[in-house]
Amino acid sequence: MKKIYFLLLIVVLFFENNTFAQCPGCALNTSCIVTPAYPSTCPLDTLPSGMAGQVYDNDITFYMPEIFEVTSPITQNVHLDELVINNVTGLPTGLNWQTNSTDNTYHPSAGNEHGCAKVCGTPLFPGVYNVTIFFQVTVTPQSVGSVTTENESSTMVMIVSQNPSGNSAFTISNPQGCAPLITDFNPVVTSGGSPLYTYSWDFGNGNTSISENPSTQTYTNAGTYIISQTTNMLAYRLTDVTFDVGSNTNWCGDVDEPDIFGCSGSPDFVFELRDSSTSSIIYTSSEVSNSMTGSWNNINLQLQNQTYTIQFWDIDAVSANDNLGIFTITPTATGTFNFSGGGVSGTYIIDTEIINSLSDTDSVTVFPVPTVLSITATPNDSICFDQTITLTVPNNGYNYQWYNDTTLLYNAIDTFLILNNASGSYWVNATNQYGCSSVSQPVNINFIENPYKPTFGISA
How far apart are CA 178 and CA 181, in angstroms? Predict the structure, then answer.
């Protein structure tokens, strides 16, 4: 019957547990029917591609005929009793999924041969995504066999393309301006306090950072600076497990390992990892035969949720399998962790792996500031009343504006300024083609009153 379940997985592609879904209101396409009857989707097999940073909204209708024909292991009709979506992992960050079933459970035998899901959100990271679907199906053969329920999983691919509109990884508060330029940088994808994000910055000015929100940067020299940034989204993964049966004797005393003046042989054990939110098995280890200790290395199983259970079983060929212990795994940090109880003990190792990565570059442009000008007063800065003083600055191709103290002098926009009987503190503002300005040091000009002219007369 195994082929039935793999053929059914196209029905469950892209449907996520409603606990995290935020995409209600999918629209059914009741014309989605396949002849001869067989499980299918509309659109078939694949979802329209998305683009990073752009809103995504699509509906999928799936067709689940109550009865359809299979050819393996024999040709016969089967009854699709129930289909349950347990979990979906590896989804593009930023997308949410919701079916039109409150518990993601469908019973085609009740006449419900169509279902739908809405896929919505804004995918943040471009890339090719391996989407793993965990589901449970129950079928009843109409000729040979009995009701069968199995947990299955399969991996499909979804593509999110790069947004060609420019920098999608970070923002720059002040991307261009006059020296010294002061600006701040922030990532588009924020961690929300989660440790499962890492950040790497190169500001092009010799400074780097691994902070989510790095310190303010100052660019003192004119030029173009290339900024690069990478945001990595991580996931915890289970890499290694060790187990010691210890003093536990649950495995002893059955047909497979009889207790005859003591336990005969040693247990043959495996472990199962279950998602606590759905109780579905997401991993079953290889068997360690006839041993009191065992280890499994390079498991590298990605952990998407917060709580799991790990259960160890003695596998028996004749009698029922024996429970050797069940423990809780809550991945919130990396490291080696211990568990013990009921006479058994062991360890497990959690590390992280990169599941999404967003990198981009941009630039900061710093414009030069005009050279600070020095004012020359001719013939000098103090002169007799009714004479003139000419103030000049070098002609560097700037736009000039003269001031006396705080008063702007209208139409005084040349490289020179002729003064007549107007003492004060004069300075000039120079502005270049980029709109950047500098001001000169002020020059104090003093027109000196002429001395009193005496009047001479002849007295008798």
Answer: 6
